[in-house]
Amino acid sequence: MEKGLNITTEFTSGLQILFNNIKKHKVVLPETENPWTLGMLLFWIKDNILVDKDKCDLFMKGNTVRPGIIVAVNDQDWELLGDLKYCIKNNDNITFISTLHGG
Amino acid sequence: MCSVNEEGAEVFEVLKPIEPLELKCRKCLIEDGNVVLQKKFVYCKTCFVPMVTHKFRATVGKSKLVNRGERVLVCVSGSQSSVSLLHMIWTGLQQSTYKRLTFEPVVLYIDESVLHDYPLDQVKKIKELFEKYGLTYHIVKFSAAVYLDNCLNKDTNVDQYNDKLQNIFNNLSDLTLKEDMLMKLRKRAITKLADLLKCTRIMTAENEHKLSIRLLSNVALGRGSQISLDIGLAVNNKNNNNTSLVTIRPMRNLSAKEISYYALFNKLDDFMHSNFLTATSEDESIQKTTERFVNDLQVDFPSTVSTIFRTGEKISEKTSAIAYCLLCQGIMEVNVSPSSAMEATKYSKYVSLMGVKALKLSLKELKNEETNEKNCNGCKCRNKQDLKEKIIESLCYACTHIIQELESLDDLPEEILNKEKERLQFKKMEEQIKDFLL
Ligand SMILES: [Zn+2]
Ligand SMILES: [Zn+2]
């Protein structure tokens, strides 16, 4: 029987401001019909851990991350993994790094 | 690419070939890639870190910028770039003899918590980090560094200076000016501390990305003539009395992405490092608008940043400059030609103020007209207004905008005011003896 996915999301280099100043968030993604993709995760983060919803545009733009934010899964560039289409696996460590100045 | 409008960008996009990315590292050809640079160069972790370190070392080693045993002030703000710089320097100091860095780093953290909300334990954590590296370090409060000569003395009460500093920024309502002023005061503080700590070199951690944005913002702010000062690899601080103080930017050939992955692979923790633009909307300041412009372009054109940067490098300062701004220590335009943009701005302001009358008067007469109008006889505001007008003469174009917004000059660092008074006295004296000179 399959349960939800246990993953860690990390927000660094200023992005943590949007997440209560906490960098590491261990989260459980609920079970869904379709496999979880990074694209889905972004919206889930927005709905579930982003503190100030008004500041959403500092994290996302359209259906992807704001330009200037780098995404890595287990230390690997998401550009190598099909970015939004990457299927999240149990225990994945997903890092969001801001290259914007002053966060 | 400079003239890309919306349609143009779309056409470009269609033409972009969709090549599948090579998954193996381009260097060792064995390992799977971890990072993609510029959308095409794939590196594995093992090859990536030395590649980045090498770029850093190449920049530091260039034309013998730092002498053996020289004291170098390493400015760490807590940002990812700055903790990476610290890590690279520390690594360089551990290396075997022929590769070892031979200068003497003095690490500096300026605590800006008076202006921004930082976690309460931030200074403690920074301290722990510095202790771990075992390098000489100093943690100085921002207000102390701006206002006091003995700012290394930790026992001084800085409350009144905190108020002064906050006053300045509360007076500036415009985010663009706030951020500009913060940059200038930071620079003053760092220069002063370098002097106090007997350092002859300053290292700051700006990367290519940040410098490109600064380059474009500088142009927009009217700081075009100061570009090489603000983004150059090694900049001699000529305004300083001992002419040997040089600011070095050893990370300037690294991209923001390279630094982010360097920090990630080395598990470097970064700290909150805010400025006035942190988490602000992109439309509120010139600097953020510029940043968005660059970042949005960068998504589809991965060489945007390096293109801007290389172009900026070709701009060099005019050697004819002899005056330096009292506030930012940047080059000032003196004796500008009547056709310059600055004079044009002045003239258009004048025309809109005076209407048709403007056509009859020349620009020279404008000056007299202005002074006549401003002499409101006998009221108290006069002295202050006077000093403000005088001080503006010693400021560069961009800095006048900052000072004009300030209600009072009392909160400025005393050394600025003193220097101005000195200048005025000198001018007065010159005036008095003018008739006796042949
Ligand atoms: Zn490799
Ligand atoms: Zn200036």
UniProtKB/TrEMBL annotation, chain A:
<feature type="modified residue" description="1-thioglycine">
    <location>
        <position position="103"/>
    </location>
</feature>
<keyword id="KW-0963">Cytoplasm</keyword>
<keyword id="KW-0833">Ubl conjugation pathway</keyword>
<dbReference type="GO" id="GO:0005829">
    <property type="term" value="C:cytosol"/>
</dbReference>
<dbReference type="InterPro" id="IPR012675">
    <property type="entry name" value="Beta-grasp_dom_sf"/>
</dbReference>
<comment type="pathway">
    <text>tRNA modification; 5-methoxycarbonylmethyl-2-thiouridine-tRNA biosynthesis.</text>
</comment>
<dbReference type="GO" id="GO:0032447">
    <property type="term" value="P:protein urmylation"/>
</dbReference>
<feature type="cross-link" description="Glycyl lysine isopeptide (Gly-Lys) (interchain with K-? in acceptor proteins)">
    <location>
        <position position="103"/>
    </location>
</feature>
<dbReference type="GO" id="GO:0002098">
    <property type="term" value="P:tRNA wobble uridine modification"/>
</dbReference>
<comment type="function">
    <text>Acts as a sulfur carrier required for 2-thiolation of mcm(5)S(2)U at tRNA wobble positions of cytosolic tRNA(Lys), tRNA(Glu) and tRNA(Gln). Serves as sulfur donor in tRNA 2-thiolation reaction by being thiocarboxylated (-COSH) at its C-terminus by the MOCS3/UBA4 homolog. The sulfur is then transferred to tRNA to form 2-thiolation of mcm(5)S(2)U. Also acts as a ubiquitin-like protein (UBL) that is covalently conjugated via an isopeptide bond to lysine residues of target proteins.</text>
</comment>
<dbReference type="InterPro" id="IPR015221">
    <property type="entry name" value="Urm1"/>
</dbReference>
<protein>
    <recommendedName>
        <fullName>Ubiquitin-related modifier 1 homolog</fullName>
    </recommendedName>
</protein>
<keyword id="KW-0819">tRNA processing</keyword>
<dbReference type="InterPro" id="IPR016155">
    <property type="entry name" value="Mopterin_synth/thiamin_S_b"/>
</dbReference>
<keyword id="KW-1017">Isopeptide bond</keyword>
<comment type="similarity">
    <text>Belongs to the URM1 family.</text>
</comment>
<dbReference type="Pfam" id="PF09138">
    <property type="entry name" value="Urm1"/>
</dbReference>
<dbReference type="GO" id="GO:0034227">
    <property type="term" value="P:tRNA thio-modification"/>
</dbReference>
From TrEMBL, chain B:
<dbReference type="GO" id="GO:0016779">
    <property type="term" value="F:nucleotidyltransferase activity"/>
</dbReference>
<dbReference type="GO" id="GO:0005829">
    <property type="term" value="C:cytosol"/>
</dbReference>
<comment type="similarity">
    <text>Belongs to the CTU2/NCS2 family.</text>
</comment>
<dbReference type="GO" id="GO:0000049">
    <property type="term" value="F:tRNA binding"/>
</dbReference>
<dbReference type="GO" id="GO:0032447">
    <property type="term" value="P:protein urmylation"/>
</dbReference>
<dbReference type="InterPro" id="IPR019407">
    <property type="entry name" value="CTU2"/>
</dbReference>
<dbReference type="GO" id="GO:0016783">
    <property type="term" value="F:sulfurtransferase activity"/>
</dbReference>
<comment type="pathway">
    <text>tRNA modification; 5-methoxycarbonylmethyl-2-thiouridine-tRNA biosynthesis.</text>
</comment>
<keyword id="KW-0819">tRNA processing</keyword>
<dbReference type="InterPro" id="IPR014729">
    <property type="entry name" value="Rossmann-like_a/b/a_fold"/>
</dbReference>
<dbReference type="Pfam" id="PF10288">
    <property type="entry name" value="CTU2"/>
</dbReference>
<keyword id="KW-0963">Cytoplasm</keyword>
<dbReference type="GO" id="GO:0002143">
    <property type="term" value="P:tRNA wobble position uridine thiolation"/>
</dbReference>
<comment type="function">
    <text>Plays a central role in 2-thiolation of mcm(5)S(2)U at tRNA wobble positions of tRNA(Lys), tRNA(Glu) and tRNA(Gln). May act by forming a heterodimer with NCS6/CTU1 that ligates sulfur from thiocarboxylated URM1 onto the uridine of tRNAs at wobble position.</text>
</comment>
<protein>
    <recommendedName>
        <fullName>Cytoplasmic tRNA 2-thiolation protein 2</fullName>
    </recommendedName>
</protein>
